[in-house]
Queue: 3 jobs
Job 1
Amino acid sequence: MQQMEVKDNGLIIEAESLSFSYEHQESLNLTLNDINFKVEKGEFIALLGANGSGKSTLARQINALLPLQRGKLLVNGFDAGIETNMRDIRRACGMVFQNPDNQFVSSLVEEDIAFGLQNYDYPQAEISSRVAQVLEMVGLPGFEQRNPGFLSGGQKQRAAIAGVLAVDPDILILDEATSMLDSEGRKEVLETVQRLHREHHKTVVMITHYVEEAILADRVCLLSAGRIIADGSPREILTQPALLDQTQLTAPFAVRLFFELANKGVNLPEIPLTTNEIVRQLCQSK
């Protein structure tokens, strides 16, 4: 496989003509089909699509959990086509999965976080301070001696994020990380992710089928049948109900309400993304 030329161009992820099949490399039944995808350092990207669209497979390719089959992929300057780069790519990409219970390896939060640090030969004398630091980052200070099994859903997922953050990855990948949480847990996790992006300048790749979550991103890549069919700002992508219908997704509530009001003769100046936006427009139109 030809090695992709490494360039210092501000990009942290570069995929060119990326295709993947779970059957075998030559199969025509592709889960990813000719993906071209670039992420700048510090961006917050939402990979949005229905179940089976290929978004989780793309995340696993980026994190080197699935082998490169066709195309080219650079992650943090490392060519994913070179086997010896796998460890560096996985360290650069912190992956948070759907079920936090599957990520815990210990009955104590501090031991779970320390596990990753020990695997990467972090100095033993500094591990305790690093554990405290990442727990502070996710809003769980003082949770070192807690048992992950007795935490709330949102706390579990934030503890899982802390374990990922411990080795200081450049990229944080969240694969449907809120789908098993209640509304309060989802809020806790999303606020944590936004803070990590804003204050700690983490590049975030969030895989989701919730359109409301995609509103938080800088950019939305809409996937369907293994292809990226649209790529733009949340306002550009999520205000198009017909486009979202192609992927079996429903536009945000504020967008749907905008069009319902328009059908009844109530015309607002622009399509809102959030409830606050539509409330503000309605108040201003009186």
Note: Residues 183-200 form the longest helix (18 residues).
Job 2
Amino acid sequence: MPEPEFVYKIVPAALWAEATRAGALAGAPVDLADGYIHFSTAAQVRETARRHFGGQDDLLLVEVAAATLGAALRWEPSRGGDLFPHLYAPLPVDAARRVLPLPLGPDGSHLFPPLD
């Protein structure tokens, strides 16, 4: 199965603002602890939001073309044995194709834009 064209990072708006000032995202606390930046595919990102960001507001969805990340992006087994994209380098903010709000809907789940 071919790798998806785009990968997605859910990030608090304040952390993305810091990354923008610095020029790169080093990662959220969980990323720093694990030694890589966690990404999801379009098929995985809704479950990632539900499991790890439930009820959290003021989040952004960062979309990145996987090919721009080069060899630092590795596909490794994670939740349920699915292959997840992990970035073993800081994420340059200019690699972001789109940065979109990820608001909460009336039922408390996140409202996703259409994903490629």
Note: The chain has a mean pLDDT of 94.
Job 3
Amino acid sequence: MSKFLVNKYKALEPYTPGEQPRERKYLKLNTNESPFPPSEKAIALAAEEAKRLMLYSDPECKELSAKMAETLGVKTENVILTNGSDEVLNFAFMAYCDENTPAVFPDITYGFYKVFAAVNALPYKEIPLLSDFSMPTDALLLEKGTLFIANPNAPTGLLLPLSEIERLVASDPSRIVVVDEAYIDFGGESAVSLISKYDNLLVTGTFSKSRSMAGARLGFGVGSPALIADLHRIRYSTNPYNVNRMTAAAGIGALSDPEYFEENCKKIIEARAYAVEALASLGFTMTDSKANFLFARHEKIGGAELYAALREKGVLVRHFGAERIKDYNRITVGSMAEMQTLVKLIKEILEEKL
């Protein structure tokens, strides 16, 4: 770092993205991207909008907001569009946490939560997951800060039932609950259905996973009109043109092709089921993931060792070094063919090392 960096950022530990190597071609199962290309409708609309890149994008995202609201069954004033869901999550940290209202989230969850708190100089509290990695709902009920819940959780993939989400939201109307639903389309029930009932609930989502648009950077938030107005206040104070023209157009195209979206989600769920059965037969234990990834360990080979062996064979998975999860790897669910390749290579590794 330079000598000019102000003190408050000198100890900042940035978020570490998944590897995006260029030195060789890998089977990428480390960043929870979709194995399928975007909808042809998304591609066509984005290409057409590229002709107008000399113009600023619509700061209100009127057309996309209307399409998003229609898709979710809410009103446009209930929706904000952002540059990936990370942006709306950061807005929520800025809007609903301060020295008197800490951020509260599990100790094993999306790594950006801690970074958002740190970069905004906000106090935060981590609540340990239970021994089986399930959400400590009863402990969270006792907390007074703003709750951030990834559902399904990452990297465990475990889903908290909607009834438990509602219990958290209803328990304290004076507290905001932010539900990060990046992976909800792979087997969960969205909390968006609760926003008309509770004005202290903010639900966030992304086009990166189930809609095959990780490279486009498009996310959204859904909540009461007052909450969404709060987030727009921050957005207009930081980057009012946060969603570029091509991304907004691609988003409209993706939402206009529900059949493609649903078919791809179905394929991922089928490939996940295959991988779970195949890996279990090889001696792996896994959480009951409802996301587009598996969280898996093998008692006879460490997580770091398996990660390195797979990388050597041209497969990238995600390994985390934290003590409680160091024996696990997070494995993105790709296409059925990619999962078959993964299983074949893991068999080879186990035969070589055990």
Note: The mean pLDDT is 97.
